């Protein structure tokens, strides 16, 4: 009854940067799957190092067998894909180390994956890291935060209204 009178409270979710680096617009990612938002909206980050941390409080849904990507979900249902580099699946896990397993509970700054950035630069198409909201269609609003340079687990990159 009261929710009808006062409306449902807005549910805002903050997505922090999963890596130290520089923000790159998705449209500039050299892969149409990400650039054209086929998997969802988000941002991309040119990493300054090889440590990927949790950008949210939530749970690990999936660590890909090749450890080049991780799927996360917030308590309010925002689904996030962090994809380390482009065409890194072909590296078959070489240079990647997972520090969490599916089902783990995480908070911003918890280490998820480390990777050999020099090896990714040598063997992959790019080391850029897309951070994608895979259930974009279910979100009321996704807003990109204006900072160009970001610190892992500390700086906000997306603000989402569920």
Report on this model:
The protein is mostly beta strands. It has a single domain (16-161), classed as Glucose Permease (Domain IIA). It is 10% helix and 39% strand. It has three helices and 14 strands. The chain has helices spanning 2-6, 32-35, 117-123, and strands at 12-16, 21-24, 41-47, 51-53, 58-63, 69-74, 79-83, 96-98, 105-106, 111-115, 129-133, 141-144, 149-150, 156-161. The strands form three sheets. Strands 9-5-6-7-11-3-2-13 form an eight-stranded antiparallel sheet, with no helix packed on it. Strands 1-14-12 form a three-stranded antiparallel sheet, with no helix packed on it. Strands 4-10-8 form a three-stranded antiparallel sheet. Strand 5 and strand 6 form a beta hairpin. It is globular, with a radius of gyration of 16 Å. Residues 31-135 form the PTS EIIA type-1 domain. This is PTS glucose transporter subunit IIA. InterPro entries: Dup_hybrid_motif (IPR011055), PTS_EIIA_1_perm (IPR001127), PTS_EIIA_component (IPR050890). GO terms for molecular function: kinase activity. Keywords: Kinase, Phosphotransferase system, Sugar transport, Transferase, Transport.
Strand content: 35-45%
Low-confidence stretches: 1-5
CATH class: Mainly Beta
Discrete helix count = 3
Helix content: under 10%
CATH fold node name: Glucose Permease (Domain IIA)
CA-atom Rg in angstroms: 16 Å
Number of E-state strands: 14
**What order do the strands of the largest sheet run in, or round the barrel if closed?**
9-5-6-7-11-3-2-13
Which structural category fits the helices and strands?
mainly beta
Could you describe the largest sheet, including whether it forms a barrel? 8 strands, antiparallel
The CATH homologous superfamily corresponds to Glucose Permease (Domain IIA)
What global shape is seen?
Answer: globular
The rounded distance between the terminal residues' Cα atoms is 21 Å
| Number of domains as seen in the coordinates | 1
The average pLDDT value, as a whole number, equals 93
What CATH architecture do you see?
Answer: Distorted Sandwich
Order of helices and strands: HEEHEEEEEEEEHEEEE
Subcellular location: Cytoplasm
Organism: Bacillus yapensis
InterPro entries: Dup_hybrid_motif, PTS_EIIA_1_perm, PTS_EIIA_component
Main location: cytoplasm
């Amino acid at each position: 009854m009261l929710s009808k009178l006062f409306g449902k409270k807005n549910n805002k979710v903050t997505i922090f940067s999963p890596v130290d680096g520089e923000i790159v617009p998705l449209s500039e990612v050299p892969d149409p799957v990400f650039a054209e938002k086929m998997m969802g909206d988000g941002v991309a980050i040119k990493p300054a190092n090889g440590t990927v941390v949790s950008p949210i409080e939530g749970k690990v849904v999936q660590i890909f067998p090749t450890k080049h990507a991780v799927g996360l979900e917030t308590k309010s249902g925002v689904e996030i894909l962090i994809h380390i580099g482009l065409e890194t699946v072909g590296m078959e896990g070489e240079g990647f180390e997972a520090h969490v397993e599916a089902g783990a509970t995480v908070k911003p700054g918890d280490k998820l994956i480390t990777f050999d950035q020099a090896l990714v630069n040598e063997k992959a198409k790019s080391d850029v890291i897309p951070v994608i909201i895979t259930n974009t269609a279910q979100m009321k609003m996704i807003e990109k935060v204006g900072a160009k340079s970001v610190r892992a687990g500390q700086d906000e990159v997306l603000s989402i209204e569920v």
